[in-house]
User: Fold these one by one.
Assistant:
Number 1:
Amino acid sequence: MAVPRKKTSRMKRGTRRSADALTAPLYVEDKESGERRRPHHIDLKSGKYRGRQILEPKADV
């Protein structure tokens, strides 16, 4: 049976366990376009952020 040579340090153990706290990215539905987007990000389809036009809207191809 495999046995570790040394005790795992608190730092190594905590670094490994820190991935448990990660969550999947959240998405919200945009009020104007109805598309899903990340909070506090530009809606790439309409090019708007907080009601202001930031980018040119993407043309549907």
Number 2:
Amino acid sequence: MKMALDDTGGRNVITAYEPGRVTVRERVFERSVIILPTTLHADWRVTDTRALRASDFGPLLEKPPEVVILGSGDAQLFPNPSVMTTLMDLGVGIEVMDNAAACRTYNILLAEDRHVALALIFAADAESIDPGP
């Protein structure tokens, strides 16, 4: 799906999303990535929501955002509750949704000038990961 905002103002706007791939401005990412309004962490090594730990959000916690939108892949899958509790204890909200919804929500909050972070998880090899019950 193509996405567009009238004025990006130099911010990291999601311009397209399709399963397994996101485009931020003109850059295409096919691996897990953390996106903030003005910075990117393209080397985020998370590939499974179930294995996610609070420490994996380290790149965000230097200047914590108001809210983290966690894209858990092609389907909504919640991380261990301790991950969410740790972020909430730091005053950071967290919302979990599938990657497509996460991209749309991030763009809306970005357009509202909110200090938001988008953490998208792309499986290393989607066919080798058991989606569970």
